[in-house]
Design brief:
This protein has 5 helices and 7 strands, in the order αββαββαβαββα. With 133 residues, it is α/β, with parallel strands linked by helices. It has a single domain, classed as Roll (CBS-domain). Strands 1-7-6-5 form a 4-stranded mixed β-sheet.
Amino acid sequence: MNLAKIMTPKVFTVFLHETDTVRQGLEVMRRHGYTAIPVLDQEDKYLGSISEGDFLWHILDKGTTDMKAQERYRISELLRRDFCEPLDIEADRERVMEALLKQNFVPIVDSRNVLCGIVTRRSAMKYLFEEQQ
């Protein structure tokens, strides 16, 4: 499977940086309507992804929904590094499909662990469908 062919490049992908505030993360999540977003370090290396549930648990733990208060917290405090594990750009079809059974998208990284883009369930299904035609 040619991942570059079905991958949404990083330039067209919504992501957060670990140093962004929780308020920024909430605003990005709401604006784009995604349920999970990749998180990168300052060198664009993939660290993990953050989900709506992570924000919800944070809000419950802190006891406030005040957006101004969320500016005190960083995305790095909420990040689960084991959620939405990435695949290498050279990953084979089986590994990609296996990952997409567990998550809505698969982050694709290069040999330096820098995010190249994401493969979504939709893009993989479209590719497989067109391949059958």
